[in-house]
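Below sits my pick:
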Amino acid sequence: MISQFYKEMTGKESVIRKFFDYSRQRAAELGPDSVFNFSIGNPSVPVPQKFTDAMTELLATEDPVKLHGYSPTLGQPTTKQCIADSLNRRFGMNYEARHIFPTSGAAGALSHALRCVAGQNDTVLTFAPYFPEYVPYVTGTGAQLRVVPADTSSFQINFEKFEEMMTPSVAAVLINSPNNPSGIVYTTETIKRLAEILRTKEKEFGHEIFLITDEPYRELVFSNVDSPFVSSYYDNSICCYSFSKSLSLPGERIGYMAVNPKAKDADYLVNMAGQISRFTGHNCPSSIMQLAIEKVIDDTCDLSIYERNAELLYNALTEIGYEIVKPNGTFYMFPKCPIPDANEFCWKGARELGLIIVPGDSFECPGYFRISYCVPTEMIEKAIPLFEKLYNFYK
């Protein structure tokens, strides 16, 4: 008999992927010029030449057995040390190689981190709007995900609701900054207040509360934006990172989990992640990708295009009449719909015009929609009249 649990999940596939698949289907039927696909966060900027050169050099000069052989269970020692050194150099931390666990992107890091600190009958809190895949990540631990309602005036943390939802069952708090889908970066003031509340609740409840930070957009922060390194403000923290966005490598699935050296049981958590891999079948990212990352650890691709796209789109849409909290990072924007029903707005009105945008309901923020603007600037320029036509139709 097949698993009923996963059978039922087949009817709950990602809304983002639904829109993405529809856009591909429509493009195949009517031609690519008929579709303006703003559905998925697939980087549009090429990888740095330095990364391509590093891969070429590794393939030409490295021992093939090392290059293509099994990685150690807890990751390549040199890669782990390289990541630790970079974090220490950039953020004034004290990571050692033993605190780093290479993973298959941020998804792998989050899945391991959550299993390390949450389990049956525990609660994990996150903040709307949030990445919908947090649901299976948390459900897979046996814990329950509860979502703190959004502060739609700023998309910073809704602290009043957060404190109401802080109960003794909370084992972990999961945050995403810079945020998908809002494009907002949590300020230093926000992070300090969050950390203080967590420390107070740890004392009150008599147990640790881990702060898990989902940071694949860490490098995608716009000019002069306050963007704190969260783990430097709270000891019981686990940072989950991916090189997918900063280096335009989403298909390579390479990232890491970094355990704060000051965290409770910090010496155990990476070893625990290695044991968790035995249950999930993770068994480390590829050896060649770990070695390649060492060569470009502090580099990024040209991310400036995303800030230019954001400025162009924000100015045009607000002039049309859309209400938007201005993004200050990532490559997402989260406007308010001119009607309450975002599904009607996106599934019907926008699709009929060839605009592929994602309703905010799946991000726990009804009445909003996400635009992923990691696309060529020319596509945005061509789409602006359609956004205006869409707005006027419903307004």
Observations:
- The chain is about 45% helix and 10% strand.
- Residues 45 and 302 are 7 Å apart (CA to CA).
- The mean pLDDT is 93.
- Residues 188-205 form the longest helix (18 residues).
